[in-house]
Write a structure and sequence with these properties.
By secondary structure, the protein is α+β, with helices and mostly antiparallel strands. It is built from three helices and three strands; from the N terminus they run ββαβαα. It has a three-stranded mixed β-sheet, covered by helices on one side. The longest helix is centred in the middle third of the chain and has 22 residues, at 29-50. It is globular.
Length: 89
């Protein structure tokens, strides 16, 4: 998976906002929807603890990897990406 993030200006909305996308390279509609469901669930579990208030995140599903990767590994990947995004190695 790929994660993009942006810190919002102080006058913008509060809280964590998240979006999900999977291109047609991921596969047919069934594969894309499965990948997005997995990304949504990983975000639901990880972002409340590891995400930061005032940030927007976009989780991008990758071909084959997002749908077939072990769910625990997918969550770990998201935690790692958030640490790198926020500057914590």
């Amino acid at each position: 998976m790929m994660v993009q993030g942006r810190k919002r200006a102080p006058d913008e909305a509060a809280g964590i906002r998240v979006g999900f996308t999977c291109s047609k390279k991921v596969g047919n509609a069934v594969a894309r929807n499965r990948a997005k469901r997995r990304l949504r669930e990983a975000a639901r579990l990880v972002l409340p603890t590891d995400g930061r208030d005032g940030w927007d995140y976009v989780l991008i599903g990758r071909a084959e990897a997002t749908a077939s990767r072990a769910f625990d590994a997918l969550q770990d990947d998201l935690r790692f990406a958030l640490r790198k995004l926020h500057g914590n190695p």
